[in-house]
Structure formats: C-alpha cells, structure tokens
Amino acid sequence: MWKKEDFLQQSRFALCNCRVCNRPFAVQKEIDYAIALLKHNGDSRAENHRESFETCPECKRQKCLVPSDRIELTRHMKEAI
C-alpha cells in the first residue's frame, strides 16, 4: 500500500533578484545552468551574458525603449515624401 507522503517532495532554490529593480524573478540555479550550457558548448564569453540573464524581462524592455525626445519624426516624414 502506498502512502501519500511517498509521493510528496519539496525543494528550495535561491531566487535571483534583478540587477536593475532588485525584484526576484527567476531561480538562480536556472541562470547558472544556462551559463554552464553556453560554456559547455564552447562559448568563451558565456560569463559575459550573466548581467543580461540576471535582468528581469520588464527591465530589459524598459532599457530598449527610446525616450520620446530622441525620436526624429521629421526625418521619417522626409523619407516618406
């Protein structure tokens, strides 16, 4: 006869906090594993990707947005004419 306790298993993993906003967003072990895979596949710069991997998706999106004062609308309008 099986017991319910035989099927239960608990694990605890450290969370990775975003380097920009400092909010937890991923398990650190996953990030370390991804970097280890890159190293295993011969990427000599794998550790250089750590900063990007340890930044949450929301902060990555914010970093890629262009401030409105840097958008040149007149350049695009001239190209359309």
Q: Number of DSSP helices?
A: 4
**Overall mean confidence score, pLDDT:** 87
Integer-rounded radius of gyration: 22 Å
Using DSSP, what is the number of strands?
2
Quaternary organisation:
single chain
Decide which structural class fits the backbone: mainly alpha
- Strand order in the largest sheet: 1-2
Largest sheet: 2 strands, antiparallel
Count up the domains: 1
Percent strand: 5-15%
Lay out the secondary structure.
Blueprint: E1 15-17, E2 24-27, H1 28-40, H2 50-53, H3 57-64, H4 73-80
Antiparallel strand pairs: 1-2
Tell me about this structure:
The model has no long low-confidence stretch (mean pLDDT 87). It is built from 4 helices and 2 strands, in the order ββαααα. It has one domain (12-80). Strand 1 (15-17) and strand 2 form a beta hairpin. With 81 residues, the chain is mainly α. Strands 1-2 form a two-stranded antiparallel ribbon. 0% of the residues are buried.
Name some characteristics of this structure.
9% strand, two-stranded antiparallel ribbon, mainly alpha, elongated, 4 helices, 81 residues
